Amino acid sequence: MIRVLIADDHQMFRQGLAGLIAASPDLELVAGCADGAEALRLIRSHRPDVALLDISMPGIDGISLAACLQREGLATATVVLTGHDDPVVCEQAKSAGVRGFLRKGEAFENLVAVIRQVASDQRAGKQRVVTRPPERQPLTDREREVLGHIARGMSNRLIAATLGVSVKTVDSHRCNLMNKLDLHSTAELVRHALALGLA
User: Fold this and answer.
1) How far is CA 68 from CA 56, 62, 139, in A?
2) Which of 6, 17, 38, 118 is the most exposed place for a label (fewest CB within 10 A)?
3) What domains are there in the chain, each with its CATH number?
4) pLDDT in tens, 44-68
5) Tens of pLDDT, residues 103-147
Protein backbone atom coordinates (compact mmCIF):
# COMPACT_ATOMS: atom_id res chain seq x y z
CA MET A 1 0.00 0.00 0.00
CA ILE A 2 1.32 3.45 -0.99
CA ARG A 3 0.43 6.08 1.63
CA VAL A 4 -0.21 9.54 0.16
CA LEU A 5 -0.61 13.09 1.49
CA ILE A 6 -2.12 15.96 -0.56
CA ALA A 7 -1.28 19.62 0.09
CA ASP A 8 -3.10 22.08 -2.19
CA ASP A 9 -4.98 25.26 -1.33
CA HIS A 10 -7.67 24.69 -4.01
CA GLN A 11 -10.26 22.60 -2.17
CA MET A 12 -12.11 21.23 -5.21
CA PHE A 13 -8.87 20.23 -6.93
CA ARG A 14 -7.68 18.57 -3.71
CA GLN A 15 -10.96 16.68 -3.42
CA GLY A 16 -10.67 15.50 -7.01
CA LEU A 17 -7.20 14.11 -6.36
CA ALA A 18 -8.48 12.46 -3.18
CA GLY A 19 -11.17 10.74 -5.23
CA LEU A 20 -8.60 9.33 -7.65
CA ILE A 21 -6.54 7.99 -4.77
CA ALA A 22 -9.59 6.47 -3.07
CA ALA A 23 -10.45 4.65 -6.31
CA SER A 24 -7.00 3.02 -6.50
CA PRO A 25 -6.74 -0.16 -4.40
CA ASP A 26 -2.99 0.19 -3.83
CA LEU A 27 -3.14 3.83 -2.66
CA GLU A 28 -4.24 5.22 0.71
CA LEU A 29 -4.84 8.90 1.50
CA VAL A 30 -3.46 9.54 4.99
CA ALA A 31 -3.95 13.33 5.16
CA GLY A 32 -4.88 16.43 3.19
CA CYS A 33 -4.35 20.14 3.86
CA ALA A 34 -4.31 23.57 2.25
CA ASP A 35 -0.96 25.10 3.26
CA GLY A 36 2.71 24.21 3.43
CA ALA A 37 3.21 24.63 7.18
CA GLU A 38 0.38 22.21 7.95
CA ALA A 39 1.73 19.83 5.29
CA LEU A 40 5.13 19.79 6.99
CA ARG A 41 3.52 19.00 10.34
CA LEU A 42 1.40 16.21 8.84
CA ILE A 43 4.32 14.69 6.94
CA ARG A 44 6.41 14.60 10.11
CA SER A 45 3.48 12.97 11.91
CA HIS A 46 2.19 10.49 9.31
CA ARG A 47 5.38 9.78 7.32
CA PRO A 48 3.57 9.14 4.00
CA ASP A 49 5.35 7.39 1.14
CA VAL A 50 4.46 10.20 -1.30
CA ALA A 51 3.46 13.84 -0.72
CA LEU A 52 1.64 15.75 -3.49
CA LEU A 53 2.57 19.42 -3.10
CA ASP A 54 1.08 22.45 -4.81
CA ILE A 55 3.98 24.55 -6.05
CA SER A 56 2.43 27.80 -4.72
CA MET A 57 0.79 27.25 -1.34
CA PRO A 58 0.32 29.70 1.53
CA GLY A 59 2.99 29.55 4.21
CA ILE A 60 5.61 27.30 2.61
CA ASP A 61 5.61 26.68 -1.14
CA GLY A 62 5.96 23.17 -2.53
CA ILE A 63 9.62 23.42 -3.54
CA SER A 64 10.71 24.94 -0.22
CA LEU A 65 8.78 22.22 1.60
CA ALA A 66 10.47 19.50 -0.48
CA ALA A 67 13.88 21.02 0.34
CA CYS A 68 12.98 21.03 4.04
CA LEU A 69 12.03 17.34 3.92
CA GLN A 70 15.31 16.57 2.18
CA ARG A 71 17.30 18.43 4.85
CA GLU A 72 15.49 16.54 7.59
CA GLY A 73 16.20 13.22 5.89
CA LEU A 74 12.54 12.20 5.73
CA ALA A 75 11.84 9.30 3.38
CA THR A 76 8.67 10.83 1.90
CA ALA A 77 9.00 11.26 -1.87
CA THR A 78 7.57 14.54 -3.18
CA VAL A 79 5.56 15.23 -6.32
CA VAL A 80 5.11 18.92 -7.18
CA LEU A 81 1.90 20.00 -8.92
CA THR A 82 2.17 23.12 -11.07
CA GLY A 83 -0.06 25.01 -13.46
CA HIS A 84 2.72 25.71 -15.96
CA ASP A 85 5.98 24.41 -17.42
CA ASP A 86 8.92 26.58 -16.38
CA PRO A 87 12.41 25.08 -16.92
CA VAL A 88 13.86 27.22 -14.13
CA VAL A 89 11.23 26.06 -11.65
CA CYS A 90 11.75 22.47 -12.77
CA GLU A 91 15.49 22.75 -12.05
CA GLN A 92 14.76 24.31 -8.66
CA ALA A 93 12.44 21.40 -7.91
CA LYS A 94 15.11 18.85 -8.85
CA SER A 95 17.65 20.60 -6.62
CA ALA A 96 15.15 20.48 -3.75
CA GLY A 97 14.89 16.71 -4.07
CA VAL A 98 11.49 16.60 -5.78
CA ARG A 99 10.86 13.15 -7.31
CA GLY A 100 7.86 14.00 -9.48
CA PHE A 101 6.87 17.09 -11.46
CA LEU A 102 3.35 17.13 -12.88
CA ARG A 103 1.28 19.82 -14.60
CA LYS A 104 -2.16 20.25 -13.05
CA GLY A 105 -3.74 19.95 -16.48
CA GLU A 106 -2.43 16.38 -16.68
CA ALA A 107 -3.03 15.46 -13.05
CA PHE A 108 -6.32 13.59 -13.34
CA GLU A 109 -5.04 11.48 -16.24
CA ASN A 110 -1.52 10.76 -15.02
CA LEU A 111 -1.41 11.25 -11.26
CA VAL A 112 -1.93 7.68 -10.08
CA ALA A 113 0.71 6.31 -12.48
CA VAL A 114 3.19 9.02 -11.40
CA ILE A 115 2.58 8.25 -7.71
CA ARG A 116 3.21 4.55 -8.32
CA GLN A 117 6.39 5.24 -10.29
CA VAL A 118 7.76 7.71 -7.74
CA ALA A 119 7.06 5.31 -4.86
CA SER A 120 8.70 2.44 -6.76
CA ASP A 121 11.78 4.57 -7.54
CA GLN A 122 12.00 5.70 -3.90
CA ARG A 123 11.98 2.11 -2.65
CA ALA A 124 14.59 1.13 -5.24
CA GLY A 125 16.80 4.11 -4.37
CA LYS A 126 16.51 5.68 -7.85
CA GLN A 127 17.10 9.44 -7.96
CA ARG A 128 15.38 10.35 -11.23
CA VAL A 129 12.53 12.88 -11.51
CA VAL A 130 9.31 11.46 -12.98
CA THR A 131 7.41 13.94 -15.16
CA ARG A 132 4.87 11.58 -16.66
CA PRO A 133 4.02 7.87 -16.60
CA PRO A 134 5.29 5.46 -19.26
CA GLU A 135 3.68 6.22 -22.60
CA ARG A 136 0.70 4.06 -23.46
CA GLN A 137 -1.19 3.70 -26.71
CA PRO A 138 -4.13 6.13 -26.80
CA LEU A 139 -7.63 4.68 -26.60
CA THR A 140 -9.76 4.76 -29.74
CA ASP A 141 -13.18 6.41 -29.66
CA ARG A 142 -14.82 2.97 -29.75
CA GLU A 143 -12.63 1.71 -26.88
CA ARG A 144 -13.61 4.73 -24.79
CA GLU A 145 -17.26 4.05 -25.64
CA VAL A 146 -16.95 0.40 -24.57
CA LEU A 147 -15.11 1.43 -21.40
CA GLY A 148 -17.96 3.79 -20.50
CA HIS A 149 -20.53 1.01 -20.99
CA ILE A 150 -18.46 -1.37 -18.83
CA ALA A 151 -18.35 1.26 -16.09
CA ARG A 152 -22.15 1.52 -16.22
CA GLY A 153 -22.39 -2.19 -15.42
CA MET A 154 -23.43 -3.41 -18.86
CA SER A 155 -22.64 -6.99 -19.88
CA ASN A 156 -20.67 -7.75 -23.04
CA ARG A 157 -23.87 -9.05 -24.66
CA LEU A 158 -25.77 -5.83 -23.84
CA ILE A 159 -22.85 -3.66 -25.01
CA ALA A 160 -22.76 -5.63 -28.28
CA ALA A 161 -26.51 -5.11 -28.81
CA THR A 162 -26.22 -1.39 -27.98
CA LEU A 163 -23.34 -0.84 -30.41
CA GLY A 164 -24.63 -3.17 -33.10
CA VAL A 165 -21.53 -5.39 -33.06
CA SER A 166 -20.83 -9.00 -32.11
CA VAL A 167 -20.09 -10.14 -28.56
CA LYS A 168 -16.71 -11.32 -29.88
CA THR A 169 -15.91 -7.75 -30.98
CA VAL A 170 -16.76 -6.42 -27.51
CA ASP A 171 -14.58 -9.16 -25.96
CA SER A 172 -11.75 -7.98 -28.22
CA HIS A 173 -12.22 -4.34 -27.15
CA ARG A 174 -12.23 -5.36 -23.48
CA CYS A 175 -8.99 -7.31 -23.97
CA ASN A 176 -7.37 -4.37 -25.80
CA LEU A 177 -8.41 -2.00 -23.01
CA MET A 178 -6.82 -4.18 -20.35
CA ASN A 179 -3.60 -4.51 -22.35
CA LYS A 180 -3.32 -0.80 -23.17
CA LEU A 181 -4.14 0.35 -19.64
CA ASP A 182 -2.26 -2.44 -17.87
CA LEU A 183 -5.40 -3.32 -15.91
CA HIS A 184 -6.42 -6.80 -14.83
CA SER A 185 -10.07 -6.81 -13.77
CA THR A 186 -13.45 -5.28 -14.51
CA ALA A 187 -13.27 -3.37 -11.22
CA GLU A 188 -10.01 -1.72 -12.35
CA LEU A 189 -11.59 -0.85 -15.72
CA VAL A 190 -14.52 0.77 -13.90
CA ARG A 191 -12.21 2.82 -11.67
CA HIS A 192 -10.23 3.99 -14.70
CA ALA A 193 -13.43 4.95 -16.54
CA LEU A 194 -14.58 6.96 -13.53
CA ALA A 195 -11.22 8.73 -13.36
CA LEU A 196 -11.58 9.68 -17.04
CA GLY A 197 -15.17 10.86 -16.55
CA LEU A 198 -16.59 8.23 -18.90
CA ALA A 199 -19.34 7.06 -16.54
Assistant:
1) 15, 10, 40
2) 38
3) 2-124 (3.40.50.2300), 141-195 (1.10.10.10)
4) 999 999 999 998 888 899 999 999 9
5) 887 777 788 989 998 998 888 787 778 875 555 567 888 999 999
